[in-house]
Amino acid sequence: MSDKLIDVTEKEGVVRLTLNRPKALNALNSDLITELNKVLVELEQRSDLRAVLITGAGEKSFVAGADISEMRDKTPEEARVFASQALTTVKRIEHLPVPVVALVNGFCLGGGCELALACDWAIASDNAIFGQPEVGLGVIPGFGGTQRLPRRVGSALALDLITTGRKIDAAEALRIGLVNRVVPAGELDAVAEELTQQFAGNGRQAIRSAKQAIYDGMDQDLDSALALETSLFALALPVKNKVKAWARSSRSASRIFESAWYD
Ligand code: DAK
After folding, report:
1. Does 134 participate in catalysis according to the annotation?
2. How far apart are CA 128 and CA 173, in angstroms?
3. Tell me: the pLDDT tens digits for 27-82?
4. Of the residues 35, 94, 134, 187, which is catalytic?
5. Which of 106, 111, 142, 169 is deepest in the core (most CB within 10 A)?
6. Are 196 and 51 in contact (CB under 8 A)?
7. How confident is the model over 128-169, as pLDDT tens digits?
8. In this structure, what are the phi and psi dihedrals at residue 261, rounded to the nearest 5 degrees?
9. Distance, CA 184 to ligand 1 centroid (Å)?
C-alpha cells in the first residue's frame, strides 16, 4: 500500500480507490476529501472506465466517520464550507457514468455511511458495522445522509437510525436494504471481481443511461420521470437496429451495440 491518502489501482478499466488512513480508521479529514475529489475529477474525464470500487485500508474499517479531532474546532462557517466540499465530492460518485461499488470492510459510520450511500452498490463484510451517530455529537449527518438514507431505506428507518444514532450490524443493513450483499470477511474482493465481470458483459451506455434514469427520475414526479426514461430508451433505438437480431442477447451484441453508440 502506498503512503498516499488514496491508493489508486486499476485492472481492465476497473479502478479501485482505497481510502488510506488506517491509523484513524480512515476517518474523513479535509485532506482526504480534497484528494478524493481530485481523483474523481480525473475519473470523470475517462471514457474507458468500467467500474469504480471504493474501500478502506486495513481490516477494521471502511470509514469511521468524519475526522472528529478536525471537526470539533470548526466554526459554523468553516463547517458549512467543509460539508459543501464533502457533498460536492460524494455527488461526483453518483454522477460517474459507471457503477461505483462500496466494499465495506468494517466500521461504516457517519460520513462513512454517507459515502457508502452515494455509491450505487454496497457490499459489506459480515463484520461490518453501520450507523449515523452524529446526533450523539450534537450535529446531524452533513454529507447527504438525511436525504440519501431515507431514499435508500425509507423515512421511518432513516429517522430511527439518525435520531437514535444506534449502530447496526451487516445482517440488519442487508435486511433494511442499506447494502446489496453481505459476504464473509476476506471474500469482498472475489465478489467484487464477479460483479465487475457482470458489468463488463453489459452495454456501457446502457448502464450509464439506467443510472441516469434512476437517479434523475427519483427526484421528479412520476410522469416527468417516465418521460425521462422514454427519452433515454429512445436514444438507444437507432443504434439497436444496427445489431443483428440473433446477437441481441449475447455478450458480443453488447460490444457491437456499444461501439455503434460511439460511432
Ligand atoms: N475521527 C478521528 N479519529 C478516529 C475516528 C474519527 N471518526 N474514529 C476512530 N478514530 C481513531 C481513534 O481516535 C484511534 O486513534 P488513536 O487513539 O489510536 O490515535 C484510532 O482511530 C482507533 O480507534 P479506537 O482505538 O477507538 O478503535 P476501537 O476499535 O476501540 O473503536 C470505533 C472503534 C469506530 C467504535 C471508535 O473508534 C469510535 O467510536 N470512533 C468514532 C466513530 C464516530 O463517532 N464517528 C463520527 C461519526 S459522525 C462536525 C462535527 C462532527 C461531525 C461532522 C461535522 N462539525 C462540528 C463541523 C461528525 C460527522 C460524523 O461523521
Report:
1. yes
2. 9
3. 999 999 999 999 999 999 999 999 999 999 999 999 999 999 998 888 999 989 99
4. 134
5. 111
6. yes
7. 999 999 999 999 999 999 999 999 999 999 999 999 999 999
8. -60, -40
9. 25
Q: Is 114 a catalytic residue?
A: yes
C-alpha 36 to ligand 1 mean position (Å): 19
- Counting residues of the chain whose pLDDT is more than 90, the rounded percentage is 83
Distance CA 205, CA 236 (A): 9
Say if residues 146 and 175 touch (Cβ distance below 8 Å): no
Give the pLDDT band of residue 103 (cuts 50, 70, 90): very high
Q: Which of the following is catalytic: 42, 59, 94, 114?
A: 114
- pLDDT tens figures, 188-237: 999 999 999 999 999 899 999 999 999 999 999 999 999 999 999 988 76
Which 8-state DSSP code applies to residue 66? B
Q: Roughly how many angstroms between the first and final C-alpha of the chain, as a whole number? A: 40
214 alpha carbon – ligand 1 mean position (Å):
34
